Amino acid sequence: MALSEKSLKQSLDNGAILPVYVIVGNDSFLKTQAMNRIIKAAIGEDDGFNLVTFENDCDLEVLYNELSSCSFTSDKKCVVLSDYDVDKCSKNEFDSLLELAGTKYETSVFIIYFDAIVYDPKKSSKIKELMKAAEGVGGSSVIIDHRTKEELVRQLVASAKKRNCTLSNSNASYFIDSCSTDINTLLNELEKLCLYVKQGEITKEIIDSVAVKSVEASIFDLSKKIIAGDTAGAMKLLDDLYYMRVAPDLIIHQIGQAFVDLYRASAAKKQGVAPESAAQDFNMKNTAFRLKNASYQLGKYDDNKIKLSFDAIISAERENKSYSTDARVIIEKLIVRLIYIMKTGEALD
Questions:
Q1: Is 338 exposed, middle or buried (0-12, 13-18, 19+ CB in 10 A)?
Q2: What's CA 179's distance to the chain center, in Å?
Q3: Which residue stretches of 18-162 are H helix?
Q4: How far apart are CA 178 and CA 185, in angstroms?
Q5: In the 8-state DSSP scheme, what is residue 105?
Q6: What are the structural domains, with CATH classification, of the chain?
Q7: Is residue 81 a contact partner of residue 111, using CB atoms and an 8 Å limit?
Q8: Which residues neighbour 73 within 8 Å (Cβ) at sequence distance 6 or greater?
Q9: Residue 90's pLDDT is what?
Q10: Which of 139, 42, 57, 144 shows the shortest CA–CA distance to 98?
């Protein structure tokens, strides 16, 4: 059975140190924190002599020798293998890794840690095999994904309070939507916000002026300007995105996602389903705000306008892939066309 961030902490606090751990997930900060917890529990703090690390291009035979050898200064040592690319290694190499993961070592705790390489255990058959091998000898997989929005809100509010600053739940939620769901990024940006206000309330205005928005959030703002019919505001945001060197195909794709949200919100409304419930159905648990915002905009749209908007976006994607026109011009034309459709219900040739 896989351990979560919480159950791993409880297990280590109870003194249960397993022989093998396979750490995967999409939150780099929390994965590193989990690995460090295991190391601390196994060999204590600052015991560099009994911590041995291997990178992705290591010789697995050398790794085996290290796992099998004794420590002369402690009962246990930690051996960490980082970012071994299971998709690019040979069959023999992967079989050897499975054998290493499926062995219980008397004097070593083996940690297989994926940080820069992000695997989804639900989609990667090799990661599933690796996890199964570890669990077969009493080890465990550890899946560390981004915390839920509710968990992040609680942590940010508490962290701000420790710094003598006030961050309301609603503003913490807005901060996450604008910035990131990555806890390390959020804590770094929160530190900036607290230094800025010193002692006082962190408002939406301060978040907008101080915190760095994620690329996705910036493009989402561009989409909101388009749906609101604000041509000047949309073009200003496009300038900002080009200054950030955001790839044109990503901009077009994310604009398309905003209209997918409109379509989903429209379908949910027809079925009498609330945006929050629809977000669960569409696997948008951490981005439910997008569906909620889209539902507010439905009064400006009907099925025909949404269809014409999709036609314009698909046309822009095709034109961008043909490299026949400057990408900036393609996006500017797309913005004008989408706003024209929203206002008139007709396509602009």
A1: buried
A2: 11
A3: 28-43, 60-68, 91-101, 125-136, 149-162
A4: 12
A5: -
A6: 5-143 (3.40.50.300), 149-210 (1.10.8.60), 215-344 (1.20.272.10)
A7: yes
A8: 49, 50
A9: 92
A10: 139
Tens of pLDDT, residue by residue over 154-192, are 999 999 999 999 999 999 998 988 887 778 888 889 999
Q: Give the contacts of 193 (CB within 8 A, at least 6 positions apart).
A: 160, 165, 167, 175, 202, 206, 207, 210, 211
Torsion of CA 269, 274, 275, 279, to 10 degrees: -110
Gyration radius of the chain over CA positions: 25
**Count of beta carbons in the 10 Å neighbourhood of residue 254:** 19
Q: Does residue 183 contact residue 29 with C-beta atoms inside 8 Å?
A: yes
Token code pair at residue 42: 């196994």
Contact present, 342 and 299 (Cβ < 8 Å):
no
Taking residues 1-26, what's their average pLDDT?
Answer: 91
3-state secondary structure of 39: helix
Write out the two tokens for 303: 């099925």
3-class SS letters over 180-240 = CCCHHHHHHHHHHHHHHHCCEECCHHHHHHHCCCCHHHHHHHHHHHHHHCCHHHHHHHHHH
Q: For the range 286-292, what are the long-range contacts, defined as Cβ-Cβ under 8 Å and sequence gap of 24 or more?
A: 286/146, 286/148, 286/149, 286/181, 289/173, 289/177, 290/220, 290/258, 290/261, 291/261, 291/264, 291/265
Predicted TM-score (pTM) of the model is 0.62
Instruction: Name the DSSP class of 124.
Output: -
User: How far apart, in Å, do the first and last CA atoms of the chain sit?
Assistant: 57
